[in-house]
């Protein structure tokens, strides 16, 4: 499950409207890199058949199966503050995060359990 805050939904609605293609969603993915070992990536994208989808108020978040093991239970928020504006991911599967908020060290045991539960 993924939780979308009100502010993330409003921002995503604005992005999709600006893009002009209401079939797109926000793809969140995990890849190796960053100062803590893994990093988040995001882009507007078309849904794929094997995606996990969280939908709310006409917008959706898309997660591929490989990233799903690391992203189950996350909360997606959007904030504007002194550090800048952007989507923020609160990830219960991270054992530590980088100060930038886009890099994290995964709880490998939890990710393996999430992956096994999926299969």
* Total of helices: 3
CATH class: Mainly Beta
Shape: globular
Specify Rg, calculated over alpha carbons: 14 Å
Question: CATH superfamily membership, which one?
Answer: HesB-like domain
In spatial order, strands of the major sheet run 4-5-2-3-9-8
What would the average pLDDT be, to the nearest integer? 85
- The name CATH uses for the topology is Hypothetical Protein Aq_1857, Chain: A
The CATH architecture is: Sandwich
Task: Please provide the ordered H/E string of secondary-structure elements.
Answer: EHEEEEHEEEEH
Question: Would you report the number of β strands?
Answer: 9
Q: Helix/strand/pairing class, anyone?
A: alpha+beta
Question: Major sheet: size, sense and barrel closure?
Answer: 6 strands, mixed
Percentage of β-strand residues: 35-45%
Summed up, the domain count is 1
Fold and architecture overview:
Helix 2 (65-71) packs across helix 3. 26% of the residues are buried. This protein has one domain (3-118): Hypothetical Protein Aq_1857, Chain: A (Sandwich). The protein contains three helices and nine strands. The strands form two sheets. Strands 4-5-2-3-9-8 form a six-stranded mixed sheet. Strands 1-6-7 form a three-stranded mixed sheet. By secondary structure, the protein is an alpha+beta fold. It has helices at residues 6-19, 65-71, 108-118; strands at 3-4, 25-32, 38-45, 52-56, 59-63, 75-81, 84-90, 94-97, 103-106. The protein is globular and about 35 Å long. A hairpin with a 5-residue loop joins strand 2 (25-32) and strand 3 (38-45).
């Amino acid at each position: 499950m993924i939780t979308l805050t009100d502010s993330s939904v409003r921002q995503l609605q604005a992005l999709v409207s600006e893009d002009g293609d209401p079939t797109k969603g926000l793809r969140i993915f995990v890849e190796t890199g960053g100062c803590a070992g893994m990093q988040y990536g995001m882009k507007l994208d078309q849904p794929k058949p094997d995606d996990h989808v969280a939908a709310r108020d006409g917008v959706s978040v898309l997660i591929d199966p490989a990233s799903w093991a690391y992203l189950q239970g996350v909360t997606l928020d959007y904030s504007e503050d002194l550090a800048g504006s952007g989507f923020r991911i609160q990830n219960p599967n991270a054992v530590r995060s980088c100060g930038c908020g886009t890099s994290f060290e995964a709880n490998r045991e939890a990710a393996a359990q999430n992956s096994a539960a999926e299969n």
